[in-house]
Design a protein that fits this description.
Length: 199
């Protein structure tokens, strides 16, 4: 007597039944899914509002002042005392000073140009610490036709008593056209030279 082992497997009829049931369920679900998609509202896109442009305008000064009153400013003036330097006593030059030429005896017409018939006046002042006040006045023809250069025309030396002092010179019969000079010496030393011209 032979013994056969039972065969294990899926019943073919049962498999067909399962597949048929799954197909039926799927067919029933498809219309439902389609209806759900149709009933759902379509998404809408709302464009963002354009950017707002801010315009700044200057506020008039008068309006700003009236809108916000300000407290009155108090002005304080500060004064700084500046020390005034003591006045300096003018120092009198030593020797012969304030020398000039003039056309008149009063010394008001200062000049360095003269005519052939004019008298030449020389004015000066002296500060001589030695007290000698010995002044020599020498007149020269520097560049004059008919005279060698620097020809001495006149020389005089004396003690000056009155200050300020002056000397005068009139060449006789007349000055020749040309350039001249007059030298002042104090106690034997040259102190000043004044040049003049006759035209």
């Amino acid at each position: 007597m032979s013994t056969e082992e039972p065969k294990h497997g899926i019943n073919q009829n049962l498999l067909i039944a399962i597949i048929g049931a799954a197909a039926t369920i799927l067919a029933a679900l498809i219309p439902v899914i389609i209806n759900m998609n149709k009933s759902a509202p379509a998404p809408t896109f709302t464009p963002a509002p354009p950017p707002t442009t801010v315009v700044f305008t200057d506020t008039p000064a008068a309006a700003a002042t009236s809108a916000q009153p300000q407290a009155a400013a108090t002005e304080t003036n500060a004064f700084t005392a500046t020390p005034v330097p003591p006045s300096e006593t003018p120092t009198t030059p030593v020797g012969i000073y304030d020398v000039y030429l003039a056309q008149d005896k009063a010394g008001t017409s200062k000049t360095s140009t003269f005519g052939p018939q004019q008298t030449v006046y020389i004015f000066f002042n002296i500060n001589d610490p030695s007290g000698a006040k010995l002044v020599k006045v020498a007149w020269y023809a520097v560049d004059v036709k008919g005279f060698p250069a620097n020809t001495i025309l006149s020389s005089d030396e004396s003690t000056v008593i009155r200050l300020p002092s002056s000397y005068e010179m009139l060449y006789s019969p007349a000055w020749k056209v040309g350039k001249y000079k007059v030298e002042l010496y104090l106690n034997g030393s040259l102190a000043s030279t004044q040049e003049f011209e006759v035209k």
